[in-house]
Amino acid sequence: MAALILIVITDGDLREGIRELLELEGYAILDTDMAVLGVQLAQEYLPNLVLCDVSLEGQADGFWLFNELYANQRTASIPCVLLTTYPLPNNEGMNSLTKPFTADELLVTVDACLQ
Questions:
Q1: Are 36 and 69 in contact (CB under 8 A)?
Q2: Is the pTM value of this prediction over 0.90?
Q3: CATH: 3.40.50.2300, 3.10.20.30, 3.30.1330.100, 3.40.50.1390. Which one for 4-113?
């Protein structure tokens, strides 16, 4: 069974590009452009991985989404990769990928998080 990845990115072109790449690699994908809906989808479907942009439109951002997932017993163990403009330290399971990144960098990060 294919790993399920939730993508939470406001930029529609970036979200669609990542979706297409990961689907070609055999992953099942859920996606949204809103952090609040991302949390709801994660709680309902329990994806194997969440890819989330730090900068999201609206009141909630990627850090908020990460904290919401981490605070909920059902979703706390789901790995989350924050897509950032600046590098973040890896702490408390907070993985990051700095933009711009290549398809290969994304795939290596996804594979490492799913191990």
A1: no
A2: yes
A3: 3.40.50.2300
